[in-house]
Specification:
This protein is 56% helix and 16% strand. The protein has 414 residues and is an alpha+beta fold.
Length: 414
């Protein structure tokens, strides 16, 4: 049996070599289908990993208050159609919450985006306008699980005394201090001088955006430099996860008091819970994977039909060859195996090409979207399974038809 298989594989390879154009077109058809499947699943895997990285940065024991809730499923269109306009979370609201909330059970951090797309200067050098300036308090880095690779983070004293300190991301270091130690060096932001006291560890991009272009400065100092920005973010890190739901409820009740809402009034602020975001992430991931799989399967189905038609044409054109093989002793099983293995060889070769190009597409898209590329093992497993299914579906009928040909009629075929 093993000799029969090896002989048929050699025959299949010889047939591929002798019919390069037809075999090449057939392999390209299969390669295109597999490329579509692997490429879409690879991109979806990258997006999923990006979402997961962002969710991990929030932590499973955190919640936050901001002007509106995040919603991964409804997105920007929903935000544009909002009927209820929530007032911004003011500095007074944020400070009041931090003072009144139970610090023994949770750690509260206040921050706000002071400016976006800001350029930074250092001596004669000037950056592109791409930096995010964030005003923070002393709890911002521990609550958000940020670490510095060099230097230090702000202390409470640094924030209260409005010291002109800055903790910067790796993007700024690469642009202004490529070959120099940036610690204790001076940078200028909107005419104000800051001393770099810390460098944040490099972080993976989230949702296609860099997280290494941040510049952290003391909160009250940021308010004086950028007075028009007043929409604060309140982040809360729960110390005891078993108390998470109770602490969230207490925090919502306190926030309603601070905002002076009556019992019948709905919340005029957004509450973002990490567990809720995790559920939404799973829904988004499931929807993306389902669509990617459907698109891939439709393409594969078209490739299978095309492959079957090509193999049927091949059987018709090689009728005389089949008659000769049967006349010299080959039985129906030998002929069937020959054509089936030929289909399998073409499908596998086309599948390998498709997998390679699919991974290349995923890699390029990941780089363009500033995501970290990771090998999509599930997509590769699906692709390999699909390759053999396509070979079976597309190869069995033409092989069966070839095996049923009458040798005498086949030899008479012109």
């Amino acid at each position: 049996m093993w000799k029969i298989l090896t002989d048929n594989i050699n025959l299949a390879l010889e047939s591929v070599k002798s019919q390069k154009v037809r075999a090449g077109i057939t392999m390209l058809i299969i390669a295109f289908g597999i490329m579509a499947l692997v490429g879409t699943l690879t991109v979806v895997t990258g997006i999923d990993n990006s979402f997961s990285a962002g969710l991990r940065s929030l932590g499973s024991d955190k919640f936050s208050f901001k002007r509106y809730e995040n919603n991964l499923l409804q997105g920007n269109r929903h935000r544009k159609r909002r009927k209820k306009i929530n007032p911004p979370i003011s500095y007074r609201d944020a400070i009041s919450f931090k003072k009144r909330y139970r610090q023994d059970q949770a750690l509260v951090s206040l921050s706000f985006v002071a400016a976006r797309d800001i350029d930074v200067k250092s001596f004669e050098k000037k950056t592109d306008p791409k930096y995010l300036i964030i005003g923070i308090d002393e709890n911002y880095t521990p609550v958000n699980e940020l670490k510095v690779s060099k230097g230090k983070v702000f202390t409470k004293k640094d924030v209260l005394k409005n010291r002109h300190y800055a903790v910067v991301g790796t993007d700024l270091v690469k642009e202004l201090f490529k070959d120099v130690n940036p610690l204790n060096k001076e940078i200028i932001i909107k005419g104000n001088r800051f001393i770099i006291v810390g460098i944040l560890e490099k972080r993976q991009a989230t949702f296609g955006g860099s997280r290494n272009n941040r510049i952290l400065i003391p909160m009250n100092l940021a308010r004086s430099i950028f007075p028009n920005r007043s929409d604060f973010l309140i982040n809360v890190s729960v110390k005891d996860k078993t108390q998470y739901d109770r602490l969230v409820s207490n925090a919502i009740a306190l926030m309603r008091k601070i905002r002076k809402l009556r019992p019948v009034e709905v919340n005029n602020f957004g509450i973002n819970r990490s567990d809720k975001l995790e559920k939404e992430l799973k829904k988004v991931s499931s929807i993306l994977r389902t669509f990617a799989f459907i698109i891939g399967l439709i393409t594969i189905l078209g490739s299978s039909i095309a492959l079957m038609n090509i193999m049927l044409v091949s059987v018709t054109e090689r009728t005389r060859e089949i008659g000769v093989r049967k006349a010299i002793g080959a039985n129906s099983l030998h002929v069937m195996l020959q054509f089936f293995i030929e289909t399998l060889v073409i499908t596998v070769l086309g599948g390998i090409i498709g997998i390679m190009f699919g991974l290349m597409i995923g890699f390029v898209v990941a780089k363009l979207m500033k995501m970290t590329f990771s090998m999509p093992w599930d997509a590769l497993g699906i692709a390999i399974f699909v390759i053999f299914v396509v070979a079976i579906i597309s190869g069995l009928y033409p092989a069966y038809k070839a095996s049923r040909l009458d040798p005498i009629q086949a030899l008479r075929y012109e």
